[in-house]
Design a protein that fits this description.
Blueprint lengths: L6 H7 L10 E9 L3 E5 L5 E5 L14 E8 L7 E4 H19 L3 E3 L3 E3 L2 E6 L2 E6 L16 H9 L6 E9 L4 E5 H15 L5 E10 L2 E6 L2 E6 L20 E9 L3 E5 L7 H5 L8 E10 L2 E7 L2 E6 L11 H4 L5 E10 L4 E5 H9 L1
Parallel strand pairs: 3-5, 14-16, 19-21
Antiparallel strand pairs: 1-2, 1-4, 2-3, 4-5, 6-10, 7-8, 8-9, 10-11, 12-13, 12-15, 13-14, 15-16, 17-18, 17-20, 18-19, 20-21
């Protein structure tokens, strides 16, 4: 009498692979309900995907083929418990690892932002693009590190495609970090190689801060320091340039990843023309613009400023410039010296008074 063969023995002898937790397999949807989706796994039976295990935003319908991951190969009811989300993630990590290893440039679309950067979901995996890894054109340049303004600028980048490279990836730690700077690095190096000090470039002002203005020059970040904005003395850069304004500037230095630019050097220095009106020994009228312990600065013309040293204010050795002068006060001074090369003019108050008494 032949021995009865069990189902397990039949399965072992056949080519049908027994399901195991963690397997990733393909099946066809047979039924889509409110809280679950039923999957035909062919010879491996039937499985169900609960709502929480369905990937974000997936449109499902009967007959559609899907890839699923096995959570429990056989529930008490006889069917397998499956996950679409986990299967997407498993395949996603494999694909992201390949992209990372190859150093490929890919496109992402951030779905949200916080003050630290942009939130991204790619291949079913959540990732992050830190503010520090944004390219120059997207970096939120704000005055005083205003966190609300930074968040506002980052929110403007959500739902918009960005080209990035994967900066760091760890399936074990569930870490996925993107960088837009890395994606444009090679292109930036090529552009940098074509630029040299003295070149004139055009750009868009991306941020105005207390010490100058940032400019996006075809994707390269440039800085116009406050001292290079105008030939005049600049107290507030915001009075000279605005965010979004197109400007032409001269490259005065090239750093590792930034250009140092000058707005004022795009025009002739008016100081050199206006200083011709003054000669050594002249008695001139000027307006006091700054008062310091060592002297006072006096404006002689729109672009010409001179210094009255404390030793040239009075014969009194204990003279206090704060008591002797008032801001915007006009007085007469004698021109002691004109140093055209260093753009300096020395004035004397006490000699002007002596001359006026004679």
């Amino acid at each position: 009498m032949s021995k009865a063969i069990t189902m397990d023995e039949l399965l072992e002898k056949s080519d049908i692979k027994t399901l195991a937790a963690g397997d990733v397999i393909e099946g066809a949807i047979t039924n889509v309900k409110k809280n679950e989706v039923w999957i035909d796994l062919g010879a491996q039976g039937t499985g169900v995907v609960l709502r929480r295990e369905i990937g974000h935003g997936q449109q499902l319908e009967p007959g559609q083929k899907v890839t699923v991951s096995v959570i429990d190969p056989e529930m008490d009811e006889g069917y397998a418990l499956l996950s679409m989300k986990r299967a997407i993630k498993d395949r996603g990590w494999d694909e992201l690892q390949r992209v990372f290893d190859a150093g490929e440039i890919i496109e992402i679309v951030p779905y949200d932002a916080n003050r630290g950067g942009l939130l991204v979901e790619l291949e079913g995996i959540r990732g992050f693009l830190p503010v520090s890894q944004l390219a120059a054109g997207h970096y939120p340049r704000v005055s005083g590190a205003d966190k609300d303004e930074i968040l506002q600028k980052l929110n403007a980048l959500t739902n918009k495609p960005l080209r990035v490279r994967i900066l760091d990836l760890s399936r074990k730690d569930n870490k996925l970090i993107f960088s837009e700077k890395e994606a444009v690095k090679d292109d930036m190096q090529e552009r940098f190689a074509k630029l040299k000090v003295g070149d004139s470039v055009e750009g868009v002002v991306t941020g105005v801060i207390d010490f100058g203005a940032f400019v996006n020059v075809d994707g390269i970040e440039g800085l116009i320091h406050i001292s290079e904005i105008s030939w005049e003395r600049v107290d507030n850069p915001r009075n000279y340039v605005k965010v979004g304004e197109n400007v032409k500037a001269k490259i005065i230095a090239i750093d590792k990843d930034r250009l140092s630019l000058s707005l004022k050097q795009m025009s002739e220095d008016p100081w050199l023309e206006q200083v011709k009106a003054f000669k050594k020994g002249d008695i001139v009228e000027g307006k006091v613009t700054r008062i310091t312990p060592f002297g006072a600065f006096v404006q002689l013309s729109p672009s010409v400023e001179a210094l009255v040293h404390v030793s040239e204010m009075s014969d009194d050795e204990d003279v206090d410039p704060e008591k002797l002068f008032q801001l915007n006060e006009k007085k007469e001074f004698k021109v002691l010296d004109i140093d055209t090369e260093n753009r300096k003019i020395a004035l004397s108050l006490k000699e002007a008074k002596t001359k006026s008494k004679k």
